[in-house]
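ugh ok fine here u go
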Amino acid sequence: MPTPQDYARAANLSDEALLSECDESFFIASGPGGQHRNKTETGVRLVHRPTGLTITATERRSQLQNRGAALERLRAVLVKKAHVDAPRIATKPSKGAKRRRLENKRATSMKKQNRRSGWD
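structure:
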């Protein structure tokens, strides 16, 4: 199982170095684009060997453009997986904060009670 450090290391590599860590395969992409798209292998699939991530790009008619899009997506996923949230620390409100909160609640309650007294 890759660690966040593994993802961060891969995300900081150059495009050429990142591509060298990937298995690249091409396939016929379906969808709109006419005969050129339906007869040529323009779809690109990148499998990043160290992390096992698989990314595909099929939206363009050009294999080169799809390779660039797949590389951008792979880098974005690596950056996202490298992020580690800071641990949360449980805290308690201070005595003064509790006292102020209760005083404000009592004051609001008194305002509302005073509004009601004229309507009984």
